[in-house]
Amino acid sequence: MNPDFSDLQTLWQQQPPQAPDLTSWMAGARRLEAKWKRSQWTAGICLGLTILFFLYMLIDSPMETPAGWSGMLLLILSMMVALGFILNRSTRATESLDLPVTEFANHHLKAIRRRLMITRQVIPWYMLAILLGVNLTYLEVLSRGDLTFRLTAHLVVSAIMIFGGWMLYRRQRARLEHEAEPVIQALESLTGGQ
What we know:
Blueprint: H1 6-14, H2 22-60, H3 66-92, H4 101-141, H5 147-191
Helix pairs in contact: 2-3, 2-4, 2-5, 3-4, 4-5
């Protein structure tokens, strides 16, 4: 026994097409961008203060070995690169409230995709540079200690940094992709999948 769906099909075909709710999509994109701007400012301030602290430490108690200098310089340089990414993103943000819908959508789509690319490709290298810098600095700081203690300290600190960093990275990436995916789909539908 096959049910007759002709009445349902006729009713469905007579429904007028629903116009997408552009204001809610645009508001969602604005909320996401505002949230990311707050996190950029917070990260930028923290990185700036940390860079200043490391510079103070480098000047106040200079390193004695090339490994210590290399570690501190690697830490400072990697943080400066990260700060450059943050400043670049925040100065690029333009007010797009008056743009036509497709330009608004393209602007926010590029910003979201760039943020996802940085999260996926740049942050793991940044984390590796920080890990290497910390370990090189520990070579200097723990140089007067027993070899067994030094190796244990390196292994424990490295394991904690790798595990903690990887877990935080995975959580941040999943949260970012979860927040961005609906906005990306909505913006792509506005731009025709560009």
